[in-house]
Amino acid sequence: MWQFVQISDPHLSSTHDGQWNNRFLCTMMPEVMACLRRDLAALRPDFLLVTGDVVSRQTRDAMMAARDGLESLGVPYYPMGGNHDFVLPESRGWFLEAFAHRLPEPATIYSFTHKNLRFHVLDAWWCWRDGSLQPVPQNSDAKDMEDDLKGLHWGLPEAQLDWLDARLAEDGPHTADIVAVHYPALPIPERLRFPGLRDGGCLVNGDRLLGLMDRYPRARAVFSGHVHAHFMERRGRVTQVTTGSLPEFPVEFRLISVHDDRMEVETQGLSDPSFAERSLIPGHGRTAGQPEDRNFSIPLS
């Protein structure tokens, strides 16, 4: 048995607080990261899977500061981009510069194998109003994103689906294939919805991703973030694991214990519960998920 940790949407190097479904407190992230470092030192995972929105501000300096924040955790990690990371034509270049020492290949889509699992990291693009997928937002979409994601959508370009298809078809000694992409393939389930829920949405072609994965028996899970809520949904043999944002209630991460025949996913809060208490808005606690969203098993055989 070995373990890895998923964290998502840390929105590092930001001095701006706000509200999404709970209080979105980026200014507490230096304290959160210090606490997380202590907690990870006790857990000693093999690595972190960081499922996007690493940074909030669209500057090179902000990307480098976000890298320094992740390095401070003292654990190897695999990062990926989200809607807040990849906004400007220069953004992906900054990402590759900042994280070159952590990426197994100099690209925003990549694969790596760790023990009995093979991971495939994807880079979803912005949907323009003509239905095309582009690497950057259209016109004022980036500015609108700061207030609301309504009307904004993202999807996987055809070339990335072809790339994934080819990777999944490759043979190897691994037990299972895992996909990681910032945006979930499935929407927030009805059991977690409440009046006034702000929903960042899911991949416009999430069904295509899941259909592709279902053709390969070893493709077992998609790990994502983006919607600032915990949920788990199954489609065929594939499990969607979506994890909330570190600056927002419930301020938690996923600990994944990997066995030969299964992954056990356990949701863990920080050792200091005050961060979650500061963020929670009464009546909005459903973002923590139901019991079945928090602790579950994913078969690998």
What do you see in this structure?
- This protein has 301 residues and is an alpha/beta fold.
- It is built from eight helices and 17 strands.
- It has a six-stranded mixed beta sheet with strand order 5-4-1-15-16-17.
- Helix 2 packs parallel to helix 3.
- The chain is globular.
- It starts with a strand and ends with a strand.
- The relative contact order is 0.18.
- Give the low-confidence spans: none
- Terminal CA distance reads 15 Å
User: How would you state the average pLDDT, rounded?
Assistant: 96
Individual helix count: 8
The whole-angstrom Rg is 18 Å
| Strand segment tally | 17
Main sheet properties: 6 strands, mixed
Helix proportion: 10-25%
Estimate what percentage of residues fall within beta strands. 25-35%
Described by its quaternary structure, the protein is single chain
Shape: globular
Biggest sheet strand line-up: 5-4-1-15-16-17
Along the chain, the helix and strand elements come as: EEEHEHEHEEEEHEHEHEEEEEHHE
Structural class: alpha/beta
Quick rundown:
By secondary structure, this protein is α/β, with parallel strands linked by helices. It contains eight helices and 17 strands.
Could you name the key traits of this structure?
six-stranded mixed sheet; alpha/beta; 301 residues
